[in-house]
Amino acid sequence: MADTRTRLTVPETPIPPRTCLLLPIILVIAACAAPGPDADRQSSAGEARSAYLAGDYGTAAIEFQELALSQPEVADYWWFRAADAAWLAGDARRAGDFLKRSQLDRLEADDRPLARLLEVATARPPMSPIRALANLDYPPERLPEAYRGLYLKTRGQVLAAADQPYASAVERLRLADELLDPELARQNRLAVLEALQQLSVQELTRLLRRHDPEEEIYGWMALVSSAKQAVFSSQPIRAAVDAWRERFPDHPANLEAADALISSYDVSFSSPRRIALILPLSGNLASAGQSMLDGFMTAYYSGDRTGQIQVYDSQSEPSVALAMYRRAIAERVSAVVGPLDKDAVAAVILEADGSVPLLALNYPTRPVPALPGIFQFGLLPEDDARATAERMLSDGHARALVLKPNSSWGDRMGQAFVDRFEALGGVVQDVTAYAEDSVDFSPLIERVVGLDRAQQRRRELQGQLGIPLGFVPQMRPDVDALFMAARPREGRLIKPQLAFHNAGSLPVYATSHVYTGIADPIANRDLNEVRFCDAPLLLGSQSFQLDADMLRETFESASGSRLRLFAIGYDAFRILPYLDWLSGLSGDGFPGTTGQLVVNRDGQIKRRLDCAEIRSGGPRPLENNRERAGP
Predict the structure, then answer these.
(1) Which alpha helices (H) appear in 535-623, and where do they start and end?
(2) How far apart are CA 205 and CA 208, in angstroms?
């Protein structure tokens, strides 16, 4: 694999002390002071080593394989060497096969860093990001020089997979110093650009404050930030990049990255001329519909107002929503936004052919075929649980307990957390359900944190010894944090009862449902230190023209948790001009009040949420997950 060898020479890999009997006799005398092996073994080891040092890695891999088969007492070492040679020969599959036959914990300490790197590089399917980062938790200087480029490239890829684009870009810039091949250097620069494009303007702004303008990464981030700000304010992208070039004339991004950015972002955007907005303004969903309508119109009046908006009342009935959609199409609108009801969304999507752009404000209850021009955007409760799982792992907690209500909502929240947590390499030790009308959670908490088992052991020992034993409750040692799917009432009961049972030091994470959306030092005092993820507008974690407190005072439809629905309506209008463009990009996001908005291949708009910790009864934004430099 040509792109793994970034130097022309391969330094000699040291042979571990216990295999010194396999070296030629002169090395045996110098290093081992023990009887030498027979001549055949000595010769085979020498031939394999000579082939390796001569760069004949294919032959060396075969020789090391034969040594592993003929010398079972040191087979682990020879299988590792065979994997090393096979990788350098460009045969990743054989390298992986050889490595699987070696027990890496039996290798000498100096060999383990390379073995762990090869384990990540050859894993099929790829390792989870958490496990891969644990395998790469050492400096590249502990590797042979020929592998340092592979280490930095692999670590950059893993950090990107772990949704840490800033850290990925940092590793890629370190890799640049190792690359001698011009084409590999070009690919690496484009990888830096791709990673940083996944950061929002707000994230880039915060990161720029941390760096000196003379640092190379500062110039990269300034380029991407300038381009994004131009795009989302409908300014010419070329003018923004030209201004950046004047400021950074000698920056490496001038080679091809700046032109690539212009190519990606050089698009003109304008709102559709006539927009049909289909919402339930009567019936049982009227309250939600009004919140979204007010948010949508607030965004409209905050902009240039070049288009026209026609509002259609779907009356909380799927059949009416479908009829309103057909009417809007007959009236030749340029785009349709809505409906809201899940069944109505399914009916309209099945009717639509994509010729008129459709932005549904929810997700259908059943999968429906995805067509170009059809998009889905809404508040999925599961988004909160997944974001919380990512945050918990990012904070270094890889072993979790899960508490959830015994309801369909609780099942959805719990499963979403477990699926995401385990997909990223975390371990869920226990999942426990509680009754939503519970007041006393003590028996449940004792069982979850392991206190009931500790007390049982104490009773058993007392019975055996016949004497009373003291008991200091201690939480089970195999957990790092607790995830609770809970609404404010349950959260305010569970958190203090954890402290009562000597589990107060256990970090607690929740979904946004635990917070009413209104800071209250008295009502929320028992939720202090709980961490959760939510829309940036509600957390105050990003700078918008909107002010959450002002909106609540101005609009009844933006009070409490309804502000999230208001924000969905606001973002729906603002993102309309960018939908087709975003769907053609990889990972780039729109800076929304509900989160950083990314359009996937199925036309679904996914939200990347910000996270906060409750302090003094209100949310205090945390450093964003995606800015962390890794574990």
Answers:
(1) 536-539, 548-554, 562-575, 579-583
(2) 5
